[in-house]
């Protein structure tokens, strides 16, 4: 019996089984607002967090604007709030026990407090690999999956 004839078929079936198993961010509910307030990311205990937090805010504001959202200066003027959190992992699979790994999580909540969008930067990586550029790329990657803002009602 020749297994080489069945190999392409098996590979196709395996590929189809992974459809829909993506971990990419997506909207959980419809987005029917245009004004978003960007909160300062939750603080962490790793160095350069202030610089990284500024990068998260500035990059998120730019990405939101590019999707047609209006970024507000105050939470009271907004229809939704974007919250970012640095998730810190210690030990785990790190080679050194004192090494800390970090990932970025971003969630958009509507005025009623319901989550309408969420995503993250992926697996935590050692702090030494984070930079302003990597932070900006992570924010862009997450928010690029955000749907375009809905047209304002007339």
Short structural summary:
With 154 residues, the protein is of the alpha/beta class.
Helical content, roughly?
25-40%
CATH class: Alpha Beta
The best one-word shape is elongated
Number of helices: 3
Describe the structure in your own words.
There is one protein chain. The protein is α/β, with parallel strands linked by helices. The protein has a single domain, classed as Double Stranded RNA Binding Domain, CATH 3.30.160.670. The chain is built from 3 helices and 7 strands. Strands 1, 2, 3, 4, 5, 6 and 7 form a 7-stranded mixed sheet that branches. Helix 2 (49-66) packs parallel to helix 3 (132-143).
Key features of this structure:
single chain; about 150 residues; Double Stranded RNA Binding Domain; 7-stranded mixed β-sheet
Topology:
Elements: H1 7-17, E1 26-27, E2 35-38, H2 49-66, E3 70-71, E4 80-90, E5 100-110, E6 115-120, E7 125-126, H3 132-143
Parallel strand pairs: 2-3, 2-4
Antiparallel strand pairs: 1-6, 4-5, 5-6, 5-7
């Amino acid at each position: 019996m020749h297994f080489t004839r069945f190999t392409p078929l098996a590979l196709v079936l395996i590929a189809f089984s992974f459809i829909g198993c993506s971990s990419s961010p997506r909207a959980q509910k419809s987005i029917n607002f245009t004004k978003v307030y960007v909160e300062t990311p939750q603080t962490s205990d790793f160095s350069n967090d202030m610089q990284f937090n500024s990068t998260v805010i500035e990059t998120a504001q730019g990405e939101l604007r590019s999707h047609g959202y209006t970024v507000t200066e105050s939470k009271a003027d907004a229809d939704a709030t974007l919250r970012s959190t640095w998730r810190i992992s210690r030990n785990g699979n790190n080679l050194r026990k004192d090494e800390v790994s970090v990932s970025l999580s971003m969630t958009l909540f509507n005025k009623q407090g319901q989550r309408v969008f969420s995503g993250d930067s992926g697996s935590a990586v050692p702090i030494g690999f984070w930079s302003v550029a990597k932070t900006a790329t992570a924010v862009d990657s997450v928010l690029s999956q955000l749907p375009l803002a809905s047209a304002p009602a007339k």
